[in-house]
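Here is one chain, start to finish.
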Amino acid sequence: MSERVSFLNQRLEWTGLGDILRNHLLKVPPYQRSYAWGKAHLEDFWDDLDGSKKDGVEYFMGPIVVSSARPPETRMTIIDGQQRLATASILIAVMASSLIALGDTDTANDIDRWYIGEKDLRKRAVTPKLVLNEEDRRFFTSLLTRESGTQPETASHKRIMEAYNYFREKVDKDAPPPPSLRDWIIDWIEYIREKSVVMLAVIPDESDAFAIFEALNARGKDLAIADLLKNYLFSCAGSSFDDVKASWNSAISNVTDTIGTVSDKEEEGVTDFLRHHWNSEYPLARERELYRRCRTRIRSERDAVEFTADLDKSASYYVALLNPGHDIWREMGSKVTDAVSTLFSLRLEQNRSLLLAALRKMPKQELVILLPWLLSWSVRGVLVGGIGKGKYEVTYANAALAISDGKASTVDQVYAKLESIIPSDTELEIAFKTYRPPSNKLAHYLLRALEVGLQKTNEPYWIPNPDHEALTLEHILPRSPNKTQWKEFKTDEVISEYMSRLGNLVLVPKKKNMALGNRPFSSKRKTYQDAGLEITRSAATQAVWTPEIVDKRQEELAKLALKVWPRVPVSGKWKVIT
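Its structure:
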């Protein structure tokens, strides 16, 4: 069978989503992710079905891909479609529970038997129609069969419970009162069975699952890279399946537990982790290339075992890149903690592959020195522009690979790898003279760091963002100025150009800033004078506020920026700032 599976070579059938549940025993394989739909998915599911049902038309729900059951196994394996099938099962279970509340247990029992599961005559245990993966199967079945004491324990359990409660609310809100309720529920069940149409594709062998996933991905279906890669790794695992699965699950759980429990963010965060891990160990692969690169490099059972074991080790370090308060940073001292906090706060993520490689491979004494300097170089890149462009990404990835290969184990060696993308003093000064921060958070950090640089003799570039409740950003020329009070800025174009320039911004205590608003410059000067900050006070020395004053002020700040975010130490020796 070719890797690019042709659906024409499989058994295809147009059928209802409910008919699949009624006519087949199904299971989710262990390598598939747990239940992942959140509220947005549930809303789309309900609104689409409800709207189509009210219009009296069929609703096409896309393809469902399963593999045939191989004796003595009686269940078909779901390759694609578990979220839709599980969600439909939850909705049907809610409908059945409404009938029980109505006192119609006979109809509810029929619905349970046909769509949820049938009780064994001897053991009285339920044989579920749909079995989810190892994490979810027990909770899912217990909830849908109304076992008492069913409590969620994991993030996916909570999502299943949230789906059940969501549909419970919808049914309670939309269902008519008795005696019409019974017919309303039966109409819904029949719509899910017959009119919620899917294209069922049955493939002969589960071992082709990864190829099916790739074919679906090429068709434009939104399949996460993590799903594609996991299926491929598991298909390569052979007799080491349990080891590969354990390493994969450990790595992904470590990352997702740190990210949180919102499924969209989890998927994005896991993809970022996989990409950053790959680029810390292997030649650069961008997101769209990652799956293909992994398949090219990982060809055997041994490759899959080694890759997932290394991925698991990498995850224990990667979580530190998501948490500036992690113990790893605290053990390195306050300067490192502050540098990481600032990188995190300003979302300077282009160097994460390099940081991951450095955490894993560089000596601690070099890492302690590297991190504050990496912040300085990153800020320079932001100020000059282009940090997100291809050259930066390639250079960071090459430096990360050099660290992993043992070719860059000192700050000097890392600097040599990055030197070509670290803006020069001339480039920084020119860019800074007209710089307009794209966010208040960045502007706040820049002014605070410049303030400390003005007051101290040592480099302050590690300064983290202070509490915005204490100091807030003030536009001297307001965002919406009264033009009669700001006649020096003669046109809307001039106002737009200078209003967001760094030279037009100052920090003032929050209580004082609230009273400034759109007042003229002459009314603001006293507040600036009393702000307690040298850079803010310097603005108060001006008699009037003009475009020429903003230009001059920003030129002076540009010279200060060379000291605040240095490119290399004056002494030529790297050091930890004290």
